[in-house]
Amino acid sequence: QSVLTQPPSASGTPGQKVTISCSGSSSNIGSNTVNWYQHLPGTAPKLLIYANDLRASGVPDRFSASKSGTSASLAISGLQSEDEADYYCAAWDDSLSGHVVFGGGTKVTVL
Amino acid sequence: EVQLVQSGAEVKKPGESLKISCKGSGYRFSSYWIGWVRQMPGKGLEWMGIIYPGDSDTIYSPSFEGQVTISADTSISTAYLQWSSLKASDTAMYYCVRRPSGTKDYYGMDVWGQGTTVTVSS
């Protein structure tokens, strides 16, 4: 059971917009920034978004993210076949000595 | 080019010890945190812990504290993840990651190694 909650799957047709939610608590998302990672099959995960809404180097502007309270979301506009991947949210959690917590991941399928 | 290159796949028996490595290049190794992330077969990503090679400050996830040891050798720009007694449940892919200094993971994990597969089976 992951500390951050994501839907297990999301899907869309090419060109559509897909949104993935990430729900946490006051000890993680509520008091720290959120990062998003893309994990394409057979490759290492890649940083997509950091500090809630800043795109990492080389990430197309089709990817955007936001945070409000204890929740965050990632949006993929103009969905493309190469966006089919697992997406994970992550945040620092202040509980205990402090550590990073991940969401369980959302599998995005391009129909 | 900034990169993290990990050691190769390992096949071990339960109870054996293991140390896998992650060599950084293309940047000042001692000035960035290095962490480890586990992905068990068919499961999601789990953060294990991080070390700041410059002063060896180490933070473990509560889930992994006491189960593994993270270390680093700045003279060869290499970080390590080790187990003293492996279990079958340690079978997973392990990624090393670079984390820029900043407040509470503000910049995220911006560089990932290619992953090391660890298989523990009798």
Descriptive overview:
The complex is a heterodimer of chains A (111) and B (122). With 111 residues, chain A is mostly beta strands. Chain A has no helices and 10 strands. Chain A has strands at 9-12, 18-23, 34-39, 46-50, 54-55, 63-68, 71-76, 85-93, 99-102, 106-110. In chain A, the strands form 2 sheets. In chain A, strands 1, 3, 4, 5, 8, 9 and 10 form a 7-stranded mixed sheet that branches. In chain A, strand 3 (34-39) and strand 4 (46-50) form a beta hairpin. Chain A is globular. Chain A starts with 8 loop residues before the first strand and ends with a strand. Chain B has 122 residues and is mainly beta. Chain B is 0% helix and 49% strand. Chain B has no helices and 11 strands. In chain B, strands 2, 4, 5, 6, 9, 10 and 11 form a 7-stranded mixed sheet that branches. Chain B has a 4-stranded antiparallel sheet with strand order 1-3-8-7, with no helix packed on it. Chain B is globular. The mean pLDDT of chain B is 96. The interface between A and B is medium-sized, with 30 and 23 residues.
Run of helices and strands of chain A: EEEEEEEEEE
What is the rounded distance between the termini of chain A?
28 Å
- Secondary structure category of chain B: mainly beta
- Unreliable stretches of chain A, pLDDT < 50, 5 or more residues? none
Largest interface, by Cβ-Cβ below 8 angstroms: which chains and how many residues each?
A: A-B, 30 and 23 residues
Main sheet characteristics of chain A: 7 strands, mixed
Radius of gyration of chain B: 14 Å
Determine the mean pLDDT of chain A. Answer: 96
Radius of gyration of chain A: 13 Å
* Helix proportion range of chain A: under 10%
SSE run of chain B: EEEEEEEEEEE
| Record field, number of beta strands of chain B | 11
The helix tally of chain A amounts to 0
